[in-house]
């Protein structure tokens, strides 16, 4: 007891000191970001500016400017240049110069960059969400959930664990290399290219940027032509934070344009991260193949939402509506197929209907609306076509939500939340990614049938399974071919930023987030060195030195059995033979014969 007492006191004192140290706030400087040209009076009405009418039937790639407008009001926001291939290559060249400097930066400097960003985000949540809302049509609550919380979670994970997972990782050297040390090193790749979608303009920029910069890379991000206005403002935040830690200019860059701009980026960088549609993802992969650069593709999904008969119907109904209506269906892992056990089907549909009836869509900054606008031009028409195809094949309307006061020019930008039953897999609505506020509900009778229905899709991003038995829910989820699964919840996997995120099949491949996503931004290098240098070095045994001795193969055969034999006696016998051959080989008479 006398021996352990001092150790206990020291351990307790250490814990107290560590706790007190945690109470001391870190010294994080504030940054100023000019927002004067993006501020709005909050009254999202037509009178705030002239209404933009996007040209129909014209190929946007032929334009030299990216025109920006609020989808909820069609208010004009401005334009940004569509960069040419030569301009893109010049931006990448500048980023490459900056990366060579940043690769030598310390983790302390990188963590300070993250803290500055985190401080700004927390202090300017309303501004960030408002800009996202104006550019994509989502509500402030949806922007907070999908933009702010996810980004803050990623930053805090990197602050806590990022350095740990980028340090050299020592591995077992195996039986034949016991005298060696083996490790994996993680070096920056160089310039990362990211082509990101419009649905979460803030997070989709910060997500690849944070991983790339923390791992010592530079990054050039092409923002969507449907969210360039917000993306270019968010870029100012990053620039200010980088300047505050003395990072080189052009370490991070945001570019605007259309397909030509993206193609030029793919051909110039060392890795590409793409978030978008399967069709464009395949084109990017073909272009990347020409340069033999790695790609990470997150290509959307059509997640299955399974509700077993022992689930809490009222509770799950609320989650289901949130899952499909968040940001007008702009979920990063959209629940688009709802499978409900036949015993609770009527009850579930009734609960969902009550909720949807209370949902009103409208300009998110003009009043208290539960759902915003559709971001993409003419997307409402596509959604209606999916609904019409389902109705023609026997589906039925259950309920539709309402649309609030909207301007005449923005009518096509809103689609009322819609619940449909009697659906089946012959309908396009159950096969094609809708990306809209539509909830198609289908019955199932057994767990096996639910799994079969969930797997009957070309997508494989995620799933959500609800059951009163957690074991049952996990068993069902384990059989669904997808990249992420939530048990008795929806999309919670993405809020756990220690987990990798990505899918299979037409949902893409590769992962971002978590250890896997962080290390995906690295050159993974295997290194082997002598464990007891210079006392023990690798020396080629005489039987297999050139010229190879007559007993060279016998030596190798015995060596293999000595190292990997199935039992200890076989290995010992082989070891004796190895030593015997070496002894004979090293005898003076044998050495003289070899010299002759």
UniProtKB/TrEMBL annotation:
The keyword Signal applies. GO terms for molecular function: oxidoreductase activity, acting on the aldehyde or oxo group of donors, NAD or NADP as acceptor. Keywords: Oxidoreductase, Signal. Residues 1-15 form the signal peptide. InterPro entries: Ald_DH/histidinol_DH, Ald_DH_C, Ald_DH_CS_CYS, Ald_DH_CS_GLU, Ald_DH_N, Aldehyde_DH_dom. The active site is at residue 298. Coiled coil: none annotated. The keyword Phosphoprotein does not apply. It comes from the Eukaryota. Pfam families: Aldedh (PF00171). Residues 63-527 form the Aldehyde dehydrogenase domain. Belongs to the aldehyde dehydrogenase family. This is Aldehyde dehydrogenase 22A1. It comes from Prunus yedoensis var. nudiflora.
């Amino acid at each position: 007891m006398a021996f352990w007492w001092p150790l206990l006191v020291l351990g307790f004192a250490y814990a107290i000191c560590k706790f007190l140290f945690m109470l001391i706030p870190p010294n994080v400087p504030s940054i100023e970001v000019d927002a004067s040209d993006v501020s709005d009076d909050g009254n999202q009405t037509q009178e705030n500016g002239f209404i933009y009418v996007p040209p129909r039937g014209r190929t946007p790639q032929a334009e030299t400017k990216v025109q920006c407008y609020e989808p909820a009001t069609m208010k004009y926001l401005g334009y940004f240049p569509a960069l040419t291939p030569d301009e893109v290559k010049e931006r990448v060249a500048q980023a490459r110069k900056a990366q060579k400097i940043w690769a030598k930066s310390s983790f302390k400097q990188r963590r300070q960059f993250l803290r500055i960003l985190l401080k700004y985000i927390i202090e300017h949540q309303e501004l960030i969400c408002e800009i996202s809302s104006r550019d994509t049509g989502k509500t402030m609550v949806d922007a907070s959930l999908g933009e702010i919380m996810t980004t803050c979670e990623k930053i805090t994970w990197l602050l806590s664990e990022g350095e740990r997972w980028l340090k050299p990782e020592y591995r077992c050297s195996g039986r034949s290399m016991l005298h060696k040390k083996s490790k994996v090193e993680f070096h920056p790749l160089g310039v990362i290219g990211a082509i990101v979608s419009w649905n979460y303009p803030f997070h989709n920029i910060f997500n690849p940027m944070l991983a790339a910069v923390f791992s010592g890379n530079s990054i050039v991000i092409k923002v969507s032509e449907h969210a360039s206005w917000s993306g270019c403002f968010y870029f100012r935040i990053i620039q200010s934070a980088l300047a505050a830690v003395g990072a080189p200019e052009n370490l991070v860059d945001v570019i605007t344009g259309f397909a030509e701009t993206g193609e030029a980026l793919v051909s110039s960088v060392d890795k590409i991260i793409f978030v978008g549609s399967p069709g464009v993802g395949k084109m990017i992969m073909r272009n990347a193949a020409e340069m033999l650069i790695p790609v990470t593709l997150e290509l959307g999904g059509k997640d299955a939402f399974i509700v077993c008969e022992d689930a809490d119907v009222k509770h799950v109904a609320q989650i289901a509506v949130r899952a499909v209506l968040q940001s007008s269906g702009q979920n990063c892992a959209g629940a688009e197929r709802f499978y409900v056990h036949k015993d609770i089907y009527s009850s579930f549909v009734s609960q969902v209907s009550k909720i949807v009836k209370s949902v009103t869509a409208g300009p998110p900054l003009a009043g208290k609306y539960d759902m915003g606008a559709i971001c993409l031009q003419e997307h409402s028409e596509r959604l209606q076509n999916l609904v019409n195809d389902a109705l023609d094949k026997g589906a039925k309307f259950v309920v539709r939500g309402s649309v609030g006061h909207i301007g005449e020019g923005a009518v096509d930008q809103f689609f009322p939340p819609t619940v449909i039953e009697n659906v089946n897999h012959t309908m396009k609505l159950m096969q094609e990614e809708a990306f809209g506020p539509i909830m198609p509900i289908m019955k199932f009778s057994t767990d096996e049938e639910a799994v079969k229905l969930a797997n009957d899709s070309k997508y494989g991003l995620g799933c959500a399974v609800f059951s009163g038995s957690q074991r049952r829910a996990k068993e069902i989820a384990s059989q669904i071919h997808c990249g992420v699964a939530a048990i008795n919840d929806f999309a919670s996997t993405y809020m756990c930023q220690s987990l990798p995120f990505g899918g299979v099949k037409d949902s893409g491949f590769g992962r971002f987030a978590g250890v896997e996503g962080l290390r995906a931004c690295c050159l993974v290098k295997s290194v082997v060195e002598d464990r007891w240098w210079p006392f023990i070095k690798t020396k080629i045994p005489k039987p297999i030195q050139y010229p190879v001795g007559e007993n060279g193969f016998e030596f190798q055969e015995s060596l293999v059995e000595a190292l990997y034999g199935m039992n200890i006696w076989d290995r010992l016998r082989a070891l004796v033979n190895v030593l015997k051959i070496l002894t004979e080989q090293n005898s003076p008479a044998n050495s003289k014969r070899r010299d002759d």
